[in-house]
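All the exercises in this workshop are built on plain-text protein records. There is nothing in a record beyond a sequence line and a structure line. A learned vocabulary of local backbone shapes supplies the integers on the structure line. The question running through the whole workshop is how a given chain folds. Here is such a record, shown just as it appears in the course material:

***
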Amino acid sequence: MGVRRRGRELALQMLYQHELSGASLEEMTQRFEELEQAPPQAREFALTLVRGVMAHQQAIDRQVAEQAEHWRLDRMAAVDRNILRLAIFELLYQPDTPPAVVIDEAVELAKRYGSEQSGPFVNGVLDGFVHRQAHPLGKP
């Protein structure tokens, strides 16, 4: 498994834990054995993602809510919601990664950790978001 994919998995697990338990980043890093055992580059990438999502969560959640028009954030599965947060963070604040890669990675996370419907749901939301960013006025 690639370093960045492993980092995204770790970040998803940390964001999920944060959402359910309210644990701080410091608490999570101290208790998360998988993070400690991960390669240093994967660990650093995961922490960058988690810090970024936590720092920009309100703005990210607004973007997710706007794109997923018929889904309230609180009605989404926690795994799907956090995968979307990770991906939107990367799309907005980590422009080094091509959008297609971000979407593919998010869909893979959704297939692995979410429900049967998670992959298509995440793909649809992110594809729409990328399209909307490229054409903010709805013009091709």
